[in-house]
Design brief:
29 strands, five-stranded mixed β-sheet, 360 residues, single chain, mainly beta
């Protein structure tokens, strides 16, 4: 009888252990068992051409650095040899200026930017940049007015259709609208939609992130800052369709209201840095990521995760130094990354990358 009791006890504990493990959530790094080192290659971008780097984006030989240099928001370089081409995106409050700019979406030599302070979306043609200056003003695609939508990131799918991420009705993450401010679709619940500790304003502040679009298809990815959450989705017949939601670690933020008018989503001692930035190529989604806590480290990492456009993990790259931002140009077999140099200024390094490596 004692033998039978021991056997039953063992079986129950084994089943309980298996049940706990089968229900255990994976962390982002756990789903990338293999890693690959990337080696550096000649870059050619002069440090003196850079100011305070806040982001990178590249496509088919064009490299745009968001760096607030000489009264402009952006600097365009030739990604092939590092040559400086021009600065653009004048900082100001005029009709073609950016009061507070953000890194936009680059595709087919057109760079679209959300100017949130003026509630408009502008498009720059890189073909109009020559001899260090812009020869034509940017085109305003729309001046938006979407009630109940707080926009963190926006992408111009074309000149008349726009996708934004943030919070809509303090519940939904994504919204699709046209240049007449007609809402075409919205969907996917934000992670803290049901959390009563957050109000409309602090929910938005807790749902900031990076939004990217596939170069040729209506596929998108959104990474949430201070988290391990990544959504991959597409637009089919004008509707937002979730492909895969990898929400493996919600932001550990505290909703705070001071004097009834000052709102914040404050970091805590448990806040993870998580995703720093993401970028898109035809085959993959690249994500600069760290599992370090925000109170213990600056917002930098030497880990780049690669997903396919179905949200499946492909490869983890380890860089030889921590970087603050990165972008990949498959046509140049290059990964560009922003680092702090020995003089505490900024440098752009280049690493050799081939898409074949991600398929190994």
């Amino acid at each position: 009888m004692k033998q039978l009791n021991k056997l039953i006890f063992l079986l129950l504990n084994t089943c309980a252990f298996m049940s706990c493990n089968s229900g255990k959530n994976h962390t982002v790094l756990e789903i990338f068992p293999e890693s690959l080192q990337l080696s550096r290659k000649e870059c050619g971008i002069c440090d003196d051409s850079l100011a305070v780097v806040e982001g990178l984006v590249c496509d088919k030989g064009d490299l745009i650095v968001y760096d607030f240099h000489s009264g402009n928001s952006y600097t365009l370089f030739n990604g092939k040899n590092g040559d400086y081409i021009a600065r653009f995106g004048a900082i100001g409050q005029g009709p073609t200026e950016i009061f507070v700019g953000c890194l936009g979406n680059l595709s087919k030599r057109c760079f679209s930017v959300l100017n949130s302070q003026a509630s408009n979306v502008m498009k720059y043609s890189l073909d109009s940049l020559s001899n260090g200056k812009m020869t034509s003003a940017p085109v305003r695609l729309t001046k938006y007015d979407i009630p109940d939508m707080e926009i963190s990131e926006l992408i111009a799918i074309d000149d008349t259709t726009f996708l934004c991420a943030g919070t809509y009705q303090s519940r939904y993450q994504y919204l699709l609208f046209d240049n007449k401010n007609k809402i075409l679709d919205y969907g996917v619940d934000i992670y803290n939609a049901a959390d009563s500790a957050f109000n409309t304003h602090t929910r938005f502040l807790a749902n900031q992130g990076d939004l990217i679009m596939h170069p040729e298809k209506k596929k998108f990815a959104y990474s949430l800052r201070f988290s391990s959450n990544l959504d991959v989705f597409e637009i089919v017949d004008g509707k937002i369709k979730l492909i895969k939601s990898l929400r493996l670690g919600d932001p550990k933020l505290k909703s705070t209201v001071e004097s009834g008018i000052f709102y914040s989503a404050k970091l805590t001692e448990d806040t993870q840095i998580g995703y720093l930035n993401i970028c898109a190529t035809e085959d993959y989604i690249y994500a600069l990521y760290t599992d370090k806590k925000a109170c213990e480290s600056a917002r930098k990492s030497n880990i780049v995760l690669v997903f396919d456009w179905n949200g499946n993990p492909v490869r983890k790259y380890l860089l030889d130094t921590d970087v603050y931002y990165m972008a990949v140009d498959e046509s140049l077999q290059s990964m560009f990354a922003a680092i702090k140099n020995s003089e505490k200024g900024w440098s752009i390094i280049c690493l050799l990358y081939t898409s074949d490596a991600a398929d190994d």
